[in-house]
TrEMBL record:
The keyword Nucleus is annotated on this UniProt entry: yes
InterPro entries associated with the record: Dis3_CSD2, NA-bd_OB-fold, PIN-like_dom_sf, PIN_dom, RNase_II/R, RNase_II/R_CS, RNR_Ribonuclease, Rrp44_CSD1
Protein name according to UniProt: Exosome complex exonuclease RRP44
Intracellular or extracellular location(s): Nucleus, Nucleoplasm
SUPFAM superfamilies: Nucleic acid-binding proteins (SSF50249), PIN domain-like (SSF88723)
Keyword Mitochondrion included in the entry's annotation: no
Length: 833
């Protein structure tokens, strides 16, 4: 079953009984596959049923003396099949039902046949379904454990068995870590070693035999090489684009290129993969690289993610699948095969199609996007929904207040609203976030009653908090404004209504709060954000520009930050062991090297010994003749930062948020798009006596696991967002031809420069080494930093002109190509590369 899940999910396969013994084994081996089989069982159209044979009197068996657990389970399966066969014989029916036992364990199949059970391997059964020949393509490529095909040259060393690996890790002979393949060099990877030891935290793996069949994100065991065999990270870009899967001599030539390009000053701990502790295989999106042999069934699949090796599959549908985005699963990787074996799962659609490419980026970044099940939707209140007397009992009625929301244009999920009013001699400020129901029921739209969770401060006119309280509430927003509309109200000389007065009060306090934060060392960084204007009919991007920030953006941000800090203090005070908080670690000093060097090249000093020193030196760093320089420095400073993470207060002692210069922080204000905020809402509700707790909420170990998942989901969502921006940028430039724009150099590489185009907020790489083009003389200076191309020297922050165009030569990896126009590089006649 573990190997046949793609077949079992097909609509053709129905009327299946899954034994409890089998389900337990699948659960132990793979949680994702277990979930998939449970989903199939719950689908009423499939007629799949689970049978608890381990709890049935006539099918339960004891493990025999000397019998292995695996043999006992195999016997339990056969006993259950025989019993069910006998059970069906008692039913008086003209149509006799035959039970077919499917197993990929050949020994178990042979024993079943000896006992008179009708048994097939999955492959035998599927090939017998002549009306559905396409199912054959979806068969997993299964070989008996430990009995790899002996024919063919052995390419890879044998993997050490798991029991010996665990002993070796315990004794320190091997190191355990997560395998991270390189995007730019398929013959190189890094293993991030687990544990707290600072030494050998990151190990380089180079060469096909040393990579030894590990796949990106596998948990592997590594043996360190002798110090005289250590290497440096390669600066060579190597893509696996060959068609001949058996061309090992070519691989050896490429490995020699790695050795000749070693920088002796940058040697790092180097090792080799000796075994796999846990595979992290998943279904991969990509395209078929059709074999050049006529009518061949064996083809190579090229994944969209360059870190994943090509996969060998067998299919009869090559002509149909060519040019399609397809999904393929890995089944195994024998020692004598250059590539892993796999099988076709399904087609997603034509490559380049907008819906297909969106599906690919969601799948590749593990973003769940299936519709909610009926079981989940059943928890929504019945429509039409309205606030009841029961709701009123436990909530404060704030519907009389002139609350408003301020959001980007087109925002439908309004998750916070604000209000400010004079309160005796002071000011009362309220931030309201909604109670989560659904986008229609909880979005804080104007002129409708909504359930909310309110954070209320009493402040003086110096924005000093005198009192804080939290309450479940009912609000009625009086206006849903965009940032521009709110700004227009604040600046207007004629508008003095309650909403405008409230906005002016909020804006005045926000300026004081922001200055205080910055004085405490909070960073104001920069990151170019793009905004697409879409065609209303085709939904293709018709314009691309950077987002314009107004004073009201900052106003909303200040009160959101203050609410998050206030809530963090409250839940930690109430639950010191299991508050869900968010921290931002300080970057190691080496992270700032590129920023410091870049500033130095413009005769500016950036101090990095504290967040306050960095903030102050960034404020001073500027040039009257080059106003965009400060923005560029702040963009570079952003790249130096660490990732902020969620954590459980009882499992950590460093709470500090470096970027905000805050001793404590959490997320409370956006429960419509962040699950962390929902947990924080629940904790806060318990803290103020508005709700009761439940066991998982007060278990710090479970909360820590949840934080780990939240961090992973947050990271993958960020990557998916970037991939979506890249794809829509490609669509925008698709019909533009060649576009000429001003750009600034952000980074200098050995054979390229990375540029930023302010008009579009777009980043790209200008390469100076390309196939079929003259070889240029390149001189890279890491200290300045600069790159001299022939007689032209390029520095970080130089203003240049580039041509932008879409390179669609590789349909799977289309990209924006940039070419330097000014300063003009003079190509001299040299040999071609």
């Amino acid at each position: 079953m573990y190997c046949s899940i793609d077949i079992l999910e097909d609509p053709v396969i129905k009327n299946v009984i899954v034994l409890q013994t089998v389900l337990q084994e699948v659960r132990n081996r793979s949680a994702p596959v277990y979930k998939r089989i449970r989903d199939v069982i719950q689908n009423p159209e499939k007629h799949f049923y689970s049978f608890t044979n381990e709890h049935h009197r006539e099918t339960y068996i004891e493990q025999g003396r000397g019998e292995s657990s695996n043999d006992r389970n195999d016997r339990a399966i056969r006993v259950a099949v025989k019993w069910y066969n006998e059970h069906l014989k008692k039913i008086e029916d003209e149509e006799k039902i035959q039970v077919i036992f499917l197993t990929n364990d050949r020994t178990n199949k042979e024993k079943a046949l000896e006992e008179g059970i009708t048994a097939y391997t999955c492959e035998e059964y599927i090939k017998s379904l002549t009306a559905n020949p396409d199912l054959v393509d979806r068969l997993a490529c299964v070989s008996d454990e430990g009995k790899e095909i002996e024919s063919g040259k052995i390419i890879f060393p044998e993997h050490i068995p798991l029991s010996k690996l665990q002993q070796g890790i315990k004794s320190g002979i091997y190191l355990q870590g997560t395998y991270r393949a390189s995007r730019d060099n398929y013959l190189e990877a890094t293993v991030w070693v687990h544990g707290d030891a600072e030494e050998n935290k990151e190990i380089i793996i180079q060469g096909l035999k040393h990579l030894n069949r590990a796949v990106h994100e596998d948990i592997v065991a590594v043996e360190l090489l002798a110090k005289d065999e250590w290497v440096a990270p390669s600066s060579v870009v190597l893509q696996d684009d060959g068609q001949n899967e058996d061309d090992i001599e070519n691989e050896e030539e490429k490995e020699n290129i790695l050795k000749t390009s070693v920088n002796k000053d940058m040697l790092r701990p180097t090792g080799k993969v000796v075994g796999i502790i846990k595979r992290n295989w998943r279904p991969f999106c990509g395209m078929l690289s059709k074999s050049q042999i006529k009518e061949a069934r064996r083809h190579l699949f090229t994944p969209a993610d360059r870190r994943i090796p090509r996969i060998r599959i067998e299919t009869r549908q090559a002509d149909t699948l060519e040019g399609q985005r397809i999904i393929v699963a890995i089944d195994g990787w024998p020692r004598n095969s250059r590539y892993p074996n796999g099988h076709f799962v399904k087609s997603l659609g034509s490559a380049g199609d907008k819906e297909t490419e969106t599906e690919v980026l969601l799948l590749e970044h593990d973003v769940p996007h299936q519709p909610f099940s009926q079981a989940v939707l059943s928890f929504l209140p019945k429509m039409p929904w309205s606030i009841t007397e029961q709701d009123m009992k436990y909530r404060e009625d704030l519907r009389h207040l002139y609350v408003c929301s301020v959001d980007p244009p087109g925002c439908t999920d309004i998750d916070d609203a604000l209000h400010c009013r004079e309160y005796i001699k002071n000011l009362e400020i309220k931030i309201h976030t909604y109670k989560l129901l659904s986008s229609n029921l909880c979005s804080l739209r104007s002129n409708v009653d909504r359930l909310a969770f309110s954070c209320i401060w009493e402040m003086n006119h110096k924005a000093e908090i005198l009192k804080t309280r939290f309450t479940k509430s009912i609000i009625n927003s009086k206006a849903s404004l965009t940032y521009a509309e709110a700004q227009m109200r604040i600046d207007s000389a004629t508008m003095n209504d309650d909403i405008t007065t409230s906005l002016r009060g909020l804006n005045k306090l926000a300026k004081i709060l922001k200055k205080r934060r910055i004085d405490n060392g909070a960073l104001t960084l920069s990151s170019p954000e793009v905004r697409f204007h879409m065609d209303s009919e085709t939904h293709d991007p018709i314009d691309l520009q950077t987002k314009e920030l107004k004073e009201t953006n900052s106003m909303v941000e200040e009160f959101m930050l203050l609410a998050n800090v206030s809530v963090a203090q409250k839940i930690y005070e109430e639950f010191p062991e299991f508050a869900l908080l968010r921290k931002h670690p300080a970057p190691p000093p080496s992270n700032y090297d590129i920023l410091v060097k870049a500033a130095k090249s413009k005769n500016l000093e950036i101090k990095t010994d504290s967040a306050k020193a960095l903030a102050e030196s960034l404020d001073k760093a500027g040039s009257p003749t080059f106003p965009y320089l400060n923005t560029l420095l702040r963009i570079l400073a952003t790249r130096c930062m660490m990732q902020a993470v969620y954590f459980c207060s009882g499992m950590d002692n460093d709470f500090h948020h470096y970027g905000l210069a805050s001793p404590i922080y959490t997320h409370f204000t956006s429960p419509i798009r962040r699950y962390a905020d929902i947990i924080v809402h629940r904790l806060l509700a318990v803290a103020i006596g508005a709700d009761s707790t439940y066991p998982e909420l007060t278990d710090k170990h479970k909360l820590a696991d949840m934080c780990k998942n939240l961090n992973y989901r947050h990271k993958m969502a960020q990557y998916a967002q970037r991939a979506s921006v890249a794809f829509h940028t490609q669509l925008f430039f698709k019909n533009k031809g060649v576009v000429n724009e001003d750009a600034y150099i952000l980074f200098v590489r050995k054979n390229a420069v990375v540029v930023l185009i302010p008009k579009y907020g777009l980043e790209g790489t200008v390469f100076f080494e390309e196939k079929g083009k003259p070889t240029l003389r390149l001189d890279y200076n890491n200290e300045v930093p600069s790159l001299t191309v022939e007689d032209t020297t390029l520095h970080v922050f130089d203003k240049v002109k580039v041509n932008i165009m879409l390179d669609a030569s590789n349909i799977q990896h289309q990209k924006i190509r940039m070419v330097l126009v000014e300063p003009k590089v003079s190509y001299k006649k040299k040999k071609m590369i």
